[in-house]
Amino acid sequence: MCGIAGLFRSGAGALRARDTVGRMLTRIEHRGPDEFGLYFDDEIAMGTARLSIVDIAGGAQPMGDASGRHWIAFNGEIYNHDELRSQLASRGHVFRTRSDTEVLLHAWLAWGEEAFPRLNGPFAVALYDRIAGTLVLARDPFGERPLYYAVNGQEWAFASEIKCFLEHDAINMRFDAKRLASIFRIWAPLDDQSCFDGIDQVPAGAVLTLTAGGSRIAHYGSPQLAAPPSPLTEGEAIELTRAKLEQSVRLRLRSDVRTGTYLSGGLDSAIITSLAAEIAPTPIKTFSVTFDDARFDESSDQALLSRHFATDHHSVRVDDQAIVAAFPDAIWHAEVPVFRSAFVPMLLLSRAARSEGVKVVLTGEGADELFLGYDLFKEVLLRSAWRDLDVSQRQDRLASLYPYLDQFSQNNQAALYAYFDRMSSSEPDELFSHDLRYRGTKLATRLLADADDGLGQLRQRIEGAQFGATASAAIHKAQWIEIRTLMSGYLLSTQGDRMAMANGVENRCPFLDPEIVNWGNATNLRFDDGRNEKYLLKRAFADRLPPRTVARPKQPYLAPDAAAFVNGRPDYLELIMSAAELKKIEVLDVGFCQRLVAKVMSAQAEIGQAESQAFMFLLSTAMVYRQFASGAERARVPLRSCRTVDGRESRVCAVESFPADA
Question: Which residue in 139, 142, 143 sits closest to 207, CA to CA?
Answer without folding.
Answer: 139
